């Protein structure tokens, strides 16, 4: 008979079997256990310093508030080119080139006062102060018809002379001047107009400008005529910045040869009256704009500028009732028709 195992032995065998079965599974390594433990361990709470750093990083950036006075940015302007001072040689060359080009534009330039002799030119020039040559030319025919010589004018009735020259303005002062110079010509120069500057400037109402007009156009003696047009243009062209007529005359005489003085004066005065006006020069129609440092002071649009041209350049009558034969424009109308 087989003996029945006791309950204590059976229990011991089961325990042994369990241990053997459990021993068959590989044991995890110490490193793996540590890694698993780290994964399983919940993240530690951030310290206050770390919390602040994290908050800064996490906080969305707020847009900068524009300054109240800030204006839209404007594009930077190109740097201005500061012109270097013009050398004396450069100025002389540019001035003479302007004269040459004006000679091509105004080959017919001439004195714009009607006259038949030095006495008529002298009187007409004195009368042209503060008025136009046109108005003088419209006035002198009756004056010279009544008083053709210095002797006649010196012996005239002042009131009658005043009435004849009234259209020229300042007629009382001008009457005194022309009657005074007529008496001086009669008494000092035998009724003849002297051909020297020093004698002319001693006559009543006669200054350097008037003397140079008479010398250059009645006697062929070169001279610079510095009238308002001449002075304005030479300043615009930067030949000089002087306002004094005598200083301007001396400076310009030093730039040009003596043989050019009289015609230079006519050309500049012609240009000032026709194109380079005082208030609104016609820059867009100017033939010497490329030589002018003041280009742009006036109208630069060619079409608009052409509408500003005067006398023959604008298709209008000139200032002389009896212009020279080579003048391309029309004769001015007499006073009654003006």
Provide structural commentary:
The protein starts with 6 loop residues before the first helix and ends in a 32-residue tail after the last helix. It has helices at residues 7-24, 30-40, 48-58, 88-105, 118-127, 133-146, 150-154, 158-165, 171-188, 197-200, 208-218, 228-236, 245-255, 261-274, 302-306. The protein contains 15 helices and no strands. It has 2 domains: 86-110 and 222-338, Orthogonal Bundle (Endonuclease Iii, domain 2), CATH 1.10.1670.10; 113-221, Hypothetical protein, domain 2 (Endonuclease III, domain 1). With 338 residues, it is mostly helical. The model is unreliable at 1-19, 21-59 and 77-82 (pLDDT under 50).
Search tags:
338 residues; mainly alpha; EC 4.2.99.18; Endonuclease III, domain 1; 2 domains; disordered N terminus; Endonuclease Iii, domain 2
Radius of gyration: 51 Å
The N- to C-terminal Cα distance equals 172 Å
- Give the structural class: mainly alpha
Q: What's the CATH C level of the largest domain?
A: Mainly Alpha
Averaged pLDDT, please? 84
Secondary structure elements and pairings:
Elements: H1 7-24, H2 30-40, H3 48-58, H4 88-105, H5 118-127, H6 133-146, H7 150-154, H8 158-165, H9 171-188, H10 197-200, H11 208-218, H12 228-236, H13 245-255, H14 261-274, H15 302-306
Helix pairs in contact: 5-6, 5-11, 8-9, 12-14
Q: Brief description of this entry?
A:
With 338 residues, the chain is mainly alpha-helical. It is built from 15 helices and no strands. The longest helix is centred in the first third of the chain and has 18 residues, at 7-24.
């Amino acid at each position: 008979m087989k003996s029945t195992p006791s309950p204590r032995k059976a229990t011991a065998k089961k325990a042994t079997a369990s241990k053997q079965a459990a021993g068959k599974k590989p044991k995890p390594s110490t490193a793996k256990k540590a890694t698993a433990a780290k994964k399983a361990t919940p993240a530690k709470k951030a310290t206050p310093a770390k919390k602040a750093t994290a908050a800064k990083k996490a906080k969305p950036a707020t847009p900068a508030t524009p300054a109240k006075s800030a204006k839209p940015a404007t594009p930077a302007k190109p740097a201005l080119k500061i012109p270097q001072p013009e050398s004396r040689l450069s100025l002389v060359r540019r001035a003479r080139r302007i004269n040459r080009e004006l000679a091509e534009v105004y080959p017919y330039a001439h004195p714009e006062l009607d006259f038949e002799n030095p006495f008529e030119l002298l009187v007409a020039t004195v009368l042209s102060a503060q008025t136009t040559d046109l108005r003088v030319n419209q006035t002198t025919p009756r004056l010279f018809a009544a008083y053709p010589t210095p002797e006649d004018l010196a012996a005239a009735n002042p009131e009658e002379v005043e009435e004849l020259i009234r259209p020229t303005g300042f007629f009382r002062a001008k009457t005194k001047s022309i009657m005074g110079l007529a008496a001086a010509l009669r008494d000092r120069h035998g009724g003849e107009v002297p051909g020297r500057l020093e004698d002319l400037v001693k006559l009543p109402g006669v200054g350097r400008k008037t003397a140079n007009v008479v010398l250059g156009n009645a006697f062929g003696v070169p001279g610079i005529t510095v009238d308002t047009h001449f002075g304005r243009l030479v300043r615009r062209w930067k030949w000089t910045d002087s306002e004094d007529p005598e200083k301007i005359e001396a400076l310009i005489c030093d730039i040009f040869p003596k043989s050019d003085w009289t015609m230079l004066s006519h050309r500049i005065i012609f240009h000032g009256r026709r194109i380079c006006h005082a208030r609104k020069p016609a820059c867009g129609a100017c033939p010497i704009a490329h030589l002018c440092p003041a280009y742009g002071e006036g109208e630069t649009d060619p079409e608009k500028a052409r509408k500003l041209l005067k006398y023959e350049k604008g298709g209008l009558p000139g200032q002389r009732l009896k212009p020279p034969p080579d003048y391309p424009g029309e004769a001015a109308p007499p006073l009654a028709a003006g």
